[in-house]
Design a protein that fits this description.
Elements lengths: L7 E8 L5 H11 L3 H6 L2 E5 L2 H17 L11 E9 L5 H6 L5 E9 L1 H4 L5 H13 L5 E7 H6 L4 H23 L12 E7 L9 H24 L9 E8 L4 E3 L2 E3 L9 H6 L1 H12 L4 H7 L3 H9 L1 H10 L6 H14 L3 H13 L3 H18 L3 E2 L4
Parallel strand pairs: 1-4, 1-5, 5-6, 6-7
Antiparallel strand pairs: 2-3, 3-4, 7-10, 8-9
């Protein structure tokens, strides 16, 4: 597969020491190698680096078979690259007609320690900057709130949350001058910052709305301060979400001497969040904000090809033909096409998904399933999406 047939989505994960970043990515990959997943899923999750994939699966199997968690990876900024490959491309003619063949997800883990401690050398400071630059292509960032630390700070959760958000803010501000492009704000930068509760299994009675209420009650001002710091880094700062989206995540259910890796929460939403949530937000921004047209096609990657798959090529092309091609292409037909795709009713999406499965159009089946997964995440109290 050529590179242009494999669009890339990037997600950045920020979390303090011990917040569960390595466990999360190990659970994401390891569970996708289980026979039950391989039998039922529409796609394979393939580690682009075989050695890295083996290490992640080893971590997962250690949790599953020996109730051991991966060791700490302090100061390690690690990108993980996965190809999401449909099981069956169907006949060659149909495959060639599709806008792409597979997806690539790059998962960037950024060490929380780098926001908590000063660099010990010039070399480490350089590594921090390079690692941060590598995740700038991400549309989505997860800020992990450590569920265990919330328990440790019971009745004083605000102290922990303030430390988390202020540490992130200060770390970003320290990098600001080196990140800016000759002093100018950035175009490529994570535009959606989701506050996620890691180790959600430690809080069985807390749904995502309760988590949102806790964070807002205890740390609304700190989130606003972080938001202002982020806005100072980017072009079109109005198109930047923080404190609007919340997610519950649990890699497994942890019990004394036992780890139930099948009891996961929110991990199945990582791909839908990285793929479709930016498209929804792009439509909202385009319709609500006065964004200069020249910036629209630079806010979110792969909007055109995802819109074509979700709507179907015939509907997409018919819509394109009816829209005058004047000015930037994305503004004139991709945004309306995306809006049409995003606003498809749940019954319509469900019907499209069933039809795509029946004719083995796995690419359409995957993206429509992602849309259904996001809806179910909201309904099940695992995900809160911005209403703006």
């Amino acid at each position: 597969m050529t590179a242009n047939r494999v669009p890339e989505q990037h997600i950045a994960v920020f979390g303090g020491s011990g917040s569960g970043k390595t466990v999360l990515v190990s659970s994401f990959y390891g569970a996708a190698q289980e026979q039950a997943f391989l039998k039922e899923s529409l796609f394979h999750v393939i580690a682009d680096d075989t050695g890295q994939g083996n290490r992640l699966r080893q971590n997962y199997l250690g949790m599953k078979n020996a109730a051991t968690v991966p060791g700490p990876t302090r100061f390690a900024a690690t990108p993980y690259s996965f190809t999401i490959k449909p099981k069956d491309h169907g006949d060659a003619k149909a495959a060639k007609a599709r806008p792409f063949d597979a997806l690539r997800l790059t998962w960037h883990d950024y060490p929380g320690e780098w926001f908590e401690e000063e660099p010990s050398s010039e070399e480490e400071a350089k590594r921090r900057l390079e690692a941060f630059r590598s995740l700038l292509r991400s549309d989505v960032a997860l800020v992990l709130v450590d569920g265990q630390k919330l328990l440790d700070y019971a009745d004083e959760e605000g102290k922990y949350l303030k430390s988390l958000f202020w540490g992130l803010r200060d770390g970003i501000l320290r990098l600001k001058d080196d990140l800016l492009d000759e002093g100018k704000p950035l175009t490529e930068f994570p535009r959606i910052w989701i506050i996620a509760l890691s180790k959600a299994d430690r809080h069985p009675d807390l749904d995502v709305h309760g988590f949102q209420d806790l964070v807002v009650e205890q740390a609304a001002g700190d989130i606003a301060t972080l938001h202002e710091a982020l806005k100072g880094l980017v072009q079109v700062p109005e198109a930047l979400s923080l404190g609007e989206d919340f997610l519950l995540l649990s890699s497994a259910r942890f019990e004394p001497g036992k780890i139930e890796v099948s009891q996961r929460v929110g991990i199945h939403l990582v791909l839908p969040v990285a793929t479709l949530l930016p498209l929804e937000r792009l439509v909202q921004w385009a319709e609500r904000l006065d964004i200069p047209r020249r910036w629209l096609d630079r806010l979110v990657d792969n909007a055109d090809v995802f819109a074509e798959v979700l709507l179907g090529p015939n509907v997409f092309r018919d819509l394109v033909r009816r829209i005058p091609k004047v000015g930037p292409v994305i503004d004139k037909f991709v945004i309306p096409a995306l809006a049409a795709a995003i606003r498809l009713s749940k019954p319509t999406v469900r019907e499209m998904n069933a039809e795509a499965r029946s004719r083995k159009d796995y690419l359409t089946a995957i993206l429509t399933q992602f849309r259904l997964d996001l809806d179910h995440g909201v309904e099940d109290g695992v995900l809160v999406k911005s209403r703006k």
